[in-house]
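so my prof wants the structure for this chain in the tokens format not the other one, which i didnt know existed until like an hour ago. anyway here's the sequence
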Amino acid sequence: MSTSNQHEAGRDPLPRRIWRSVSTRIARALAAPRLQLAAKAGLAAGIAFWVAPLMPGGAAHYAYYAPLGALVAMYENVSGSIRQGFQTLVGLGAGIGLAFLLFSFGATPVSVAAVMALGVLLAGLPRLGAGRDWIPTAALLVLVVGRQNPDDFSFGYLLQMGVGVVVGVAVNLLVFPPLHFNAAALSLAELRLSLARQLSDMGAAMHENWPPEHEDWSRRSEDLAESARSVRAAVQKADASRAANPRRRFHPRDVDKDYRSVRDLEHITFHIQDMTEVLADVIWSEDMPFTIPLPYSEPLAEALSAVGEVLRSAEEEDDAERQAELFHAAHAAVASLEDRTAADGNGAGTPSAAGSILLSLHRILRVANPNGK
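here's what i got, hopefully its the right format
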């Protein structure tokens, strides 16, 4: 079977893929962190709306903007709430100032067009972040909605949004400020186990009649790369959740170690992807000039499986002795494969692809060495 036919045969039907995508999105939307964020957003909006009528002067008439400010400031971590709230207020201030510059022209199609154009232009300035979208919005609201009393409207609009931002940041800071350490640790563990399974499955393929009956492993290359990107994003999210978070004192975590683990797993993922593509091409590509000689199958299977066990054992942080034993066993299996290929290195016939796989295994062991951590 060619590689293209192999991938066509393994592709799921369209309805199943759509259902899988929809169910995954629903599960993410209803995950515990999202539910917690939703509850805190609701609490912050309610408090902001309760406080808003107490504001001085005409600002009390625009109480409905306070819950909006609370929602704007509600972010997945405390530092993000502070940054997003501040950027929003800066954008609002810029938009209000822009509206006053053009207010003498009145609310005409020309003035509205000018406000929108200039607002979008100003939104392109660097480092505005979340505030960039509020510049044209605030300018338009002042020009159109607040045209009867622009001074009171602008004051009330900005003050009530500021009240909402303060309330939102306070709620996010005081009510279970989120730390995403567990998600990062889980992501690291899942990727490590996925890489171990990939090596084990490739090792099992060496024992089957070729072409192997089980070919799922040959289609996981991009999935592994996507998992590695997701893990890095999870660690970055965990790192960001520490900033301005009082709970970090009670839940210490070495995030620098997590970053080192991510880099190691990214290197390992690259080498496993390379081995996956090499083996898939050797098995299914008709124009591949390389092969895996039959005498190499057993030592290659043992080496792949042994290195997979090393990755799997990395989750057993308390059992350093077992990790060391598995690493030495994997090193011996790779050395045995190296000796086998070296013995036939000068033989004639179709070139072997085992050398490429052997090099990748050596590099994986260098990264996964428990004594090198």
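also thought this was worth mentioning. Residues 255-284 form the longest helix (30 residues).
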